[in-house]
Structure formats: C-alpha cells, structure tokens
Amino acid sequence: MVALTQDELLAEFENMSLIQLAEFVKAFEEKFDVTAAAAAPVVVAGGAAGGAAAEAAEEKDEFDVILTGAGDKKIQVIKVVRELTSLGLKEAKDLVDGTPKPVLEKVAKDAAEKAAEALKGAGASVEVK
Question: Fewer CB atoms near the end CB (10 Å): N or C, the chain?
Fold first, then answer.
C-alpha cells in the first residue's frame, strides 16, 4: 500500500461531499476509537474558509462554452458540436436549434477557448462563462 502525503489526503478530502466527509469521520472515529468533537469547531471554521477559497478557485478553473447562435453555416456548426461532444447528429442538431445552450460545461480554460474558437470558425456565436 502506498502512503499518501498530507497534501494528497487534503486534495482527496477537498473533492468529497459533506455527506461523504461525515461518513468518513464516523468510520475514522469507530476504527481508531477516538472522537473528533474537540476538533470539530476548528475543522468547521477551516472548512468554511477553505470552502469559500475552493469555490473561488473553481470558478476560475472551470468554464462553460455556451452556443448563443448558429449563424449562416448551421451545418458546419453542427459538425463542430459533434466533434466537441459525444452527441449524435440529431442531438447536435437539436442543441444548435435550441440556442442558447451549453456545448461544454465545467472545462478547463484552454479547452473552453479552443472550443469557442472552433465554433466561431464555423460561424457560430459563442460565450465562455
């Protein structure tokens, strides 16, 4: 078994939901016959501040690519949408017809910019949020 560093453990905890964390704490207390009650105020206060910082970081790290219009070259836009997603022809056409719609959600900044450039190159109107 590979031992995880403290930073690796914190990164894993950061990705867990509150329910998962509560279940983990309960299992930890049972396994090692300890109680986290004394540390709870510190964890809650640190978790609240860390949660706000994590949310701010997430907002900067994850972007949505929203198709706002297909333009004159609708078929080209549908092709690009199919390349960017795993949608079939009908689903891609429905997405393009139903604008404004998100094409990609919660993607990295560079992926969002590349997708927006590809869609704009096909003649579409795009927003990156």
Answer: N
Residue indicated by tokens 């501040």: 49
Concatenating the DSSP letter of every residue in 79-95 gives: HHHHHHS---HHHHHHH
- DSSP string for residues in 49-114: HHHHHHHHHHHHH-EEEEEEE--S-HHHHHHHHHHHS---HHHHHHHHHT-SEEEEEEE-HHHHHH
Note the pLDDT tens digit of each residue in 12-40. Answer: 888 888 888 888 888 888 888 887 655 44
| Reported pTM | 0.52
d(CA 11, CA 14): 5
Strands 63-69 and 125-128: antiparallel
